[in-house]
Amino acid sequence: MKNYSSRKGFTLSEVLITIGIIGVVAALTIPNLIVKYQEKQTVTRFKWVYSTLANAFTMAVAENGAPEVWELDDPQDLAEILSKYMRVDEKCYYKKGCLPSDIQVVALTGEARYGHLANDQNRVKEKFGNGISLYYASSHTGCSYTSVDVAGNETIHKNYCGSIYAFITANKFSRLGLDHFLFTVTPKGILPEYYDWNDSYIKRNCNKVNQNTETNTNVNGMTCGEWIRRWGNADYWYD
Questions:
Q1: For the segment 45-57, what is each residue's pLDDT rounded down to a tens digit?
Q2: Would the CA dihedral through 27, 30, 34, 35 be positive or negative?
């Protein structure tokens, strides 16, 4: 019969070495797990708001006709039409609220874009029970509008009924393409901004480091919603 009483336990040095190995493995593994979790949350919340807006649009068209015939003289007009078909918990039409009071909007590169939306009483906002908020930036009757550049040249923009920012997180510094995304309301549906541009343009304008020499860096991140829609990930940030 074997005598197990003669076996020795781990020495202190062996225990310390084991703990050290576990610590190293944890240090290498846990950050990656956190990153993957954060990416999954970004994609999941983006897809939720995209689906919610798409469903609201479909029901609004069924009841009110094509968006070209909607009366969209003000962003609130668009908000009232769509919110009828969404479970909105709070409406902040031209008043404070629906976003954290200290939120600051920045580009994906970190460059400042514009300031405190929550305290701005000149904006139309809504908030869902899950914390996601919408900011209705524009609306256009007939789904077209005319812009004028600094030289006085006019450009007619067709198939553009309005625009909506979706804030999927409440981070103080809200990055375009990570914490909030821009959607375009078109006659065919509500889609991520630049939904009809080619892959190279989408990737060039959705990057932590500015790769676009054609425009200012403070719009970097504008195409990230379309990135998620096409490829189902947000690894432009979590790589």
A1: 999 999 999 999 9
A2: positive
Which whole-number Å values give the CA distances from 10 to 5, 6, 14, 16, in the listed order? 14, 13, 6, 10
Q: Which two tokens stand for residue 1?
A: 């019969």
Query: Which of 129, 143, 142, 158 is CA-nearest to residue 52?
Result: 129
Other beta carbons less than 10 A from residue 8's beta carbon = 5
What is the per-residue pLDDT across 20-39, written as a single tens digit (0 to 9) for each? 666 655 555 655 656 677 88
Query: Is a pLDDT exceeding 80 seen at residue 67?
Result: yes
| Percentage of residues of the chain with pLDDT beyond 70 | 79
Residues contacting 195, CB < 8 A, separation 6+: 184, 226, 229
Residue by residue, DSSP assigns 173-222 as: EEEBTTTEEEEEEETTEEEETTTTS-HHHHHHTS-SS---SSS-GGGTTT
